[in-house]
Amino acid sequence: MRREETVKLISAEGFEFVIDKKAAMVSQTIRNMLTSPGSFAETEHGEVTFPEISTTILEKICQYFYWSLQYASGKETEFHIEPELSLELMMAANYLHT
Amino acid sequence: MSTQKKRGFQIEAFRHRVVVDPKYAEKTWKILEHAIHEIYNHNASGLSFEELYRNAYNMVLHKFGEKLYSELVSTMTSHLKAMAKSIEAAKGGLFLEELNRKWTDHNKALQMIRDILMYMDRTFIPSTHKTPVHELGLNLWRDNIIHSSNIQTRLQDTLLELVQRERTGEVINRGLMRNIIKMLMDLGSPVYQEDFEKPFLEVSADFYRGESQQFIECCDCGDYLKKAERRLNEEIERVSHYLDVKSEAKITNVVGKEMIESHVHRLVHMENSGLVNMLVDDKYEDLGRMHNLFRRVPNGLSIVRDVMTSHIRDTGKELVTDPEKLKDPVDFVQRLLDEKDKHDKIIGLAFNNDKTFQNALNSSFEYFINLNPRSPEFISLFVDDKLRKGLKGVSEEDIEIVLDKVMMLFRYLQEKDVFEKYYKQHLAKRLLSGKTVSDDAERSLIVKLKTECGYQFTSKLEGMFTDMKTSQDTMQGFYASMGPEIVDCPTLAVQVLTTGSWPTQSSATCNLPSDILGVCDKFRMYYLGTHTGRRLILADKYGHS
């Protein structure tokens, strides 16, 4: 994957997830962040820190991004969510506007 | 995910962070305020979007949205006030540039702030019905800068002055104008209209009123129209370059009103260069321009049309009642055709084939052609002349053209039956003396008349043609049947005419020599032999040897 097309998402514990920009843009918040006219630190370095999102949640979110892109292009598969994650996942989703 | 989110809000019992610090809101706001300062000072690169977004998110989540909103308003207002001061301080020509620069800055900052506060925009604002951040930013800009007492008048004056300078021929910075005007449009159409468009239209009206007064004193009609057209095009170009598209209709109205509408009568009736002169001299370009300009003005074209109609009627009447010209019917009709051609060309070239003008032309012609009671006879004589000799050697298409023109004149006649009477006489003479130039041309004219007036009108005329044809056949039959006896007798060509179709003629008796009588009798017997129940009368008058 080329450097310009990816973005790094960093969880609260410091885990780094490198994903496509296209996948990240599924989140409105991240999209605004990356397309904002101002030169925020994130756009400069191509990485976003989420000190309030834990690693497991962030991982599930990245999976969701990819599933969402798949769904949009026609393949209708299931996205499974473990119940114990669901509340935290929803709060994160609210935050990220996904 | 999004549908689950809505349900998630209702389960709200679980809070994963408890607000302990009562000054939490204050602290969070301070972070955001600092960030906004930095943004306005073009210093945003050190900031973390995520952190700011998170802070705003948390504030709204913990019910401090109200505070966030009001603090935002006051911070932005104070920044804008500072900007206003710097704009006011700018001197002379730099005023607009400074304004433009600050506007760009503000826009950029506004967008960044909106992105940070996106969560508030999404959730807090709809529920409390406050203005969203972007709109809020524009409104604050408008209130603090554009409508601030110093800047408002200065801005308006500067813009109008620049337009005025451009009208007198100077080159101004159009890009800058475009940006400023666009700013006004972005602030909302009422702002654009109040602060710029209305005074612009007023000033323009004054300017053009003065200019038109000046011009009309010194220029003739053609020149004045040229100048008016030039100004009109200039305004249209100005709009396309840096004004709102919707202003185009308004400013063209203003120009039309001041430069054209107030002076319509004067222009049309101007001595030596008014409409009538243009018509007489075939000034297509000037006429076209006049048509184009007057089109924009209510009643403009109807005045032109009226003057043209009365002019045509006058010239036509003169033509028709002049005893000199009436001596030669062919020439008379030719002149009529020429007049018609000339005006058709004018309408085609200059007036864009406008139907109303065409109608006016037709009605005028109709009027004066019928003033002369001998017109139908003259037209028939004209056709007669053409078909006898005028169209000799002329190609088929040209013949058609001439015949079409004659048809056109025919349409103007009110006494078409008079025409038919004369035409029948002339046609009979032509057919019987065999002097017609082209049979096809004759027939084609009959067809045209039939299309125009219906079968009834031409039935007799067609009957004449049929008779001629039948007679030929009869003659062949006669000579075939007679055999060698007839060789000694003078050759006879008989045309058998049906009484109804041909014009009646007084039967002056004529004493024919015996040989001829002999042959005539033979023919009579032959004919009555083949056709029973008919009477054959010798019509000497039509014969020729």
UniProtKB/TrEMBL annotation, chain A:
Belongs to the SKP1 family. The keyword Cell division does not apply. GO terms for cellular component: nucleus. One of its GO terms (biological process) is jasmonic acid mediated signaling pathway. PANTHER family: ELONGIN-C. Keywords: Nucleus. It holds the Pfam family Skp1_POZ. CDD domains: BTB_POZ_EloC. This is Elongin-C. Pathway: Protein modification; protein ubiquitination. The keyword Zinc does not apply. It comes from the Eukaryota. SMART domains: Skp1. InterPro entries: ELC1 (IPR039948), SKP1-like (IPR001232), SKP1/BTB/POZ_sf (IPR011333), Skp1_comp_POZ (IPR016073). It is found in: Nucleus.
Automatic annotation (TrEMBL), chain B:
Keywords: Isopeptide bond, Ubl conjugation. GO terms for biological process: ubiquitin-dependent protein catabolic process. PROSITE patterns: CULLIN_2. It comes from the Eukaryota. GO terms for molecular function: ubiquitin protein ligase binding. SUPFAM superfamilies: Cullin homology domain, Cullin repeat-like. Residues 374-545 form the Cullin family profile domain. Belongs to the cullin family. This is Cullin family profile domain-containing protein. It comes from Nyssa sinensis. The lineage of its organism: Eukaryota, Viridiplantae, Streptophyta, Embryophyta, Tracheophyta.
